[in-house]
Amino acid sequence: MRDEDEDAAAVASLTAARRSLGAGLEKSRALSAALSRAGPRLGEIRQRLPSLEAAVRPIRARREALTAVGGHIDRAVGPAAAVLKVFDAVHGLEPSLLSDPRHDLPGYLAVLARLEEALRFLSENCGLALQWLDDILDFLADHSLADPRFLADLKSTLSSLSAADSLDGGLLSAALDKLESEFRRLLADNSAPLPAPPAPSAAAAAAAAIAPSPIPVPAVQKLLAILGRMAANGRLDRCVAAYVDVRGSNIRAGLAGLGLGYLDEASDADDAQALGPLVERWGRHLEFAVKHLFEPEYKLCAEVFEPDAGAACFADIAADAGILAFLRFGRAVAETKKDPIKLLRCLEIFNSLNKLRLDFNRLFGGRACAEIQNQTRDLIKRVVEGACEIFWELLVQVELQSYTPPRPTAPSRSSWKREKFHDKLLSEAILKIVAALETNFDNWSKGYDDDDAVLSYLFMMNTHWHFFKHLKGTKLGELLGDPWLREHEQYKEYYAAMFLRESWGKLPSLLSREGLILFSGGRATARDLVKRRLKSFNESFDEMYQKQSNWVISDKDLREKTCHLVVQAIVPVYRSYMQNYGPLVEQDASASKYAKYTAQDLEKMLGSLFQHRPGKSRSFRVRHSNGKVNSMVSSPYRSSPPAVV
């Protein structure tokens, strides 16, 4: 029994040993398989060991050496970390600064100010931080505390950072470009050309109603805010160029409505007479341009820019917009051939410039407008010298138009340029010219044909009226004196009476009442007398009316006064005659032949005399002292006597 127990125990022990050996074998096989799988990975690790060794080599220095350099590293890394933090902040501003500033300009400018502040910090500290880091690298290299290749790579990186063109990657430049575009947009959206002035007849009444077209205050404030940032970043010249482009185009558009093509056409003209209407337009257009275009622009430039920049900006706008073209036109007039009419053109040019003298001095008086000043002075010089040259020869020219030999005169080559000017010299010359004109007019009045004697009275009435009306209250009128003016007024009345007496004044006598008072010859005899007298009146009236309908009195006041005199001489007499004797013929079968007009018809017809009608012209024949007859023909636009002034 005991033996059996021992055998069973031995078997169990063997079984357990076998089981243990089997498990060990399995583990051995599993380990072998694991080692087989790890082989490639170990090879990979083996290949990476050199680079890992290089990476950890800087920290393989002795503890004592690392402790000694630790303080230096901390002092260099602190500023570098601050710089990196600011770089991160700059990067965070990028979305806002790349957006459109028109939607929130104040917010955009605030973000831009933060960028500028960050860039100032970077410009002040980035270089210092890089220098400290470079010094640490030198220290590590000198003490062999890091791998040389590692230090070389760091050195190269620091050099690249030091050589970088900008600290913000071009963000500030992009933001300023957007501000410049917004500056131009604000100008364009708030600039509108000023309408052309009204017609000359309404210009004076509407002058006060013409208002400049300024940029609204809110827009100006935005422009100023943009300019502040642009100027602070060295881009003021870009804003000035944009301003000149936009506002200059605005003024050119305003001037285009005036139709200024004639300014360039005048350079080919040589006849001062033909330039008369253009000179008048030039004066009006120049005044409009100076007072209503350049004046507001001058004020706006002063409001938007600093004084020096504003003056330069305005000078560029004025020159670019066309002020020099106005001056070239005046010069072309001053260079026309010498002619008495040229004196009037030169005086008109000078008068227009003189009226704007204070405006020119204020607007174009700065150093920036030197070219405009030079051309203006040259124009005034040419106009004055041209006028003087003709003026000193004018007396000779006037006397040559007379029918008597010209009187001896002082040499006509005097001028303001060649000799010292005296008021008395000018006064004496003017008095001589006026006296010569009076002589000419008197001679011309005697040169009409005998059958045009009435026209000579009209001629002299017109002449004396123009002397009186247009010289009264002027400097020339003061020079000539009140007695001289009153004398011409009296002569005007005298010749008006002579004109009336020798023409229309003869008609009332044709409506005689003789033989009609008592109807001494009976009613039939009275009717015949009335018929004959009305027929004679109608024939004379028609002949005289037809003849004088071709005459023109240009001056409205004189025309109305003359027509009133004629009406008062004819109509009351005719009305009274028809009231008393018209019934004698009105019931006759041929009444329309004799009662041809009513008093109202005559008044209307006589009141319309001496008016200009398109296409009407009149030739006046004048007999010279030698007996020959020449024609003095007025233009198709003026059929009044040639003495009209």
Structure overview:
The protein is mostly helical and 645 residues long. It is built from 23 helices and two strands. Helix 8 (236-256) packs parallel to helix 11 and helix 17 runs antiparallel to helix 19 (482-502). The protein starts with a helix and ends in a 12-residue tail after the last strand.
Summed up:
The chain is built from 23 helices and two strands.
Q: If you compute it from the alpha carbons, what radius of gyration comes out, rounded to the nearest whole angstrom?
A: 53 Å
Integer average pLDDT: 75
Give the spatial strand order of the biggest sheet: 1-2
What is the H/E order? HHHHHHHHHHHHHHHHHHHHHHHEE
Please indicate the percent range of residues in DSSP E strands (runs of 2 or more): under 5%
Task: Please specify the SSE layout and strand pairing.
Layout: H1 2-56, H2 63-97, H3 105-142, H4 148-162, H5 171-189, H6 200-206, H7 217-232, H8 236-256, H9 262-265, H10 276-304, H11 307-321, H12 323-334, H13 340-355, H14 357-364, H15 370-400, H16 423-445, H17 453-471, H18 475-480, H19 482-502, H20 523-548, H21 556-586, H22 591-594, H23 599-607, E1 619-623, E2 629-633
Helix pairs in contact: 2-3, 3-4, 3-7, 5-7, 5-8, 8-10, 8-11, 10-11, 10-12, 10-13, 12-15, 13-15, 15-16, 16-17, 17-19, 20-21, 21-23
